[in-house]
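TASK: fixed-backbone design
INPUT:
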């Protein structure tokens, strides 16, 4: 065997080694972070399945444990190192256990150094665009190589990798990888490289296959889906792609994330409203309601520009649903800046927000700013922000009462005999129903509203 082998040949070679064992070995793949990472995790499982691995969720029972990691905030990183510490004990009981780490943390030099110095029992490390090189790394490890590391290279991830999807009716479809935006707080461009769009024909082919297999929700993924296609030779935009996907035959809903407000304007809203399969909801991360902070974040829009998109949608569909991401406590965010964020929340009336206390990421521009705001102050702001959002959603969820919603039932509810699902406005809906409805669309009439969900009856 030599280095000229293809990924498929490595898969065959590993599968050959594994087939000689008495029973199939078990792999445990744990993904952290955003849906792009979970989508990578599905591809990793696809390759492992082809190589003959079975799966377990419990790392203690596994022969091969892979942590597919996130680096966006410090606590994400700390959790992974904590879990690696636990694996060390598992490996002491089972010395043939192979331990792998991949995902965004594998793109950080300080992580690689820390692994080499303090976590010598980690056997395999590979970066986000080296997924298809896993079979080679595993082959080398099984053939006695002590460590197999392959990091820091940002290619176009391979097409056509088999996937073991986590759901039989909801599917994630990455349309692009990487990010060009360099928001000053964010590590993603450093760990995922520059924007690379998949070819539209590859995406359409994947969606057609999913529709044929009966998938009911297609979630298009990218760090900034609105700049889809900018790097391709052919003349294709995200709105064009949405139109093409909308034309694929089948009964499914199209969702997507994330949109960057600098690129998501009125054309996007118009396209969404023209495409009957596209959800009536836009996740539009604002990060802050202060123009000063937005500038320091390098977000390249102002609050007024952001509001143009919101107003355009609401002029046509008055209760169009918006959700957002907000960072509390960007370095030296003044109390006036913070009040402006609260003001913006009241203006937009988001149905949901994902809020994070700023986390310093070394290597980013914002990490160089000397921050004078205390952690206590930041926590207090977060508490106020969450309380305000609860008030806003308590009030605004009432607008759904009496309305009919088309809901994709996706899980058992907390109460016996109840199910939960998501409406086309991305609202959580609870209703009584048979378990057999999970994975199907049902029509529900909303009878009551909470501050995080609505309840209703199937009609
Ligand atoms: N590409 C997406 C989001 C990527 S990360 C976008 O631009 O919207 C998801 C969210 O994590 C971001 O929207 C931001 O709110 C948050 N985030 C990113 N870096 C962070 C940091 N250093 N500290 C706290 N939150 C952060
Ligand atoms: Fe990070 Fe900004 Fe890129 Fe989103 S757009 S991934 S926040 S750099
Ligand atoms: Fe985390 Fe990487 Fe996603 S840093 S948020 S897993 S792109």
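OUTPUT:
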């Amino acid at each position: 065997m030599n280095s000229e082998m293809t990924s498929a040949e490595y898969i065959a070679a590993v599968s050959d080694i594994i087939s000689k064992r008495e029973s199939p070995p078990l792999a445990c793949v744990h993904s952290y972070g955003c849906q792009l990472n979970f989508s990578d995790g599905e591809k990793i499982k696809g390759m492992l399945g082809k190589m003959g691995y079975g799966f377990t969720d419990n790392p203690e029972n596994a022969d091969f444990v892979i942590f597919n990691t996130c680096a966006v905030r410090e606590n994400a990183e700390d959790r992974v190192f904590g879990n690696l510490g636990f694996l060390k004990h598992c490996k002491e009981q089972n010395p043939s256990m192979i331990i792998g780490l991949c995902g965004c943390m594998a793109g950080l030099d300080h992580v690689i150094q820390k692994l080499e110095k303090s976590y010598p029992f980690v056997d395999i490390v590979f970066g986000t665009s080296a997924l298809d090189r896993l079979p080679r790394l595993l082959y080398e490890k099984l053939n006695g190589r002590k460590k197999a590391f392959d990091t820091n290279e940002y290619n176009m991830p391979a097409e056509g990798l088999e996937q073991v999807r986590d759901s039989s009716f909801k599917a994630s479809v990455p349309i692009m990888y990487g990010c060009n935006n360099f928001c000053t707080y964010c590590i993603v461009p450093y760990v995922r490289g520059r924007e690379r769009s998949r070819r539209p024909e590859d995406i359409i082919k994947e969606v057609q296959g999913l529709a044929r297999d009966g998938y009911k929700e297609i979630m298009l993924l990218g760090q900034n889906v609105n700049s889809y296609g900018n790097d391709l030779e052919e003349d294709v935009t995200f709105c064009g792609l949405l139109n093409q996907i909308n034309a694929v035959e089948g009964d499914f809903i199209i969702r997507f994330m994330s949109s960057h407000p600098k690129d998501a304007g009125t054309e996007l809203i118009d396209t969404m409203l023209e495409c009957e399969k596209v959800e009536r909801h836009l996740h539009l991360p604002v990060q802050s309601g202060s123009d000063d902070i937005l500038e320091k974040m390098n977000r390249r829009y102002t609050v007024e520009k952001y509001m143009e998109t919101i107003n355009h949608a609401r002029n046509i569909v008055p209760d169009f649903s918006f959700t957002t991401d907000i960072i509390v406590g960007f370095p030296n965010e003044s109390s006036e800046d913070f009040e402006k964020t609260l003001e913006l929340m009241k203006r937009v009336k988001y149905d949901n927000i994902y809020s994070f206390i700023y986390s310093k990421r070394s290597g980013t521009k914002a990490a160089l700013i000397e921050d004078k705001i205390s952690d206590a102050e930041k926590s207090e702001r977060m508490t106020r922000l969450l309380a305000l959002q609860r008030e806003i959603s308590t009030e605004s969820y009432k607008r759904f009462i009496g309305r009919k919603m088309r809901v994709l039932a996706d899980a058992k509810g907390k109460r016996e005999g109840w199910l939960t699902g998501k409406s086309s406005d991305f609202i959580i809906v609870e209703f009584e129903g048979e378990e057999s409805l999970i994975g199907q669309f049902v029509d529900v009439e909303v009878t009551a509203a909470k501050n995080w969900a609505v309840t209703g009856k199937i009609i």
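COMMENT: Residues 375-396 form the longest helix (22 residues).
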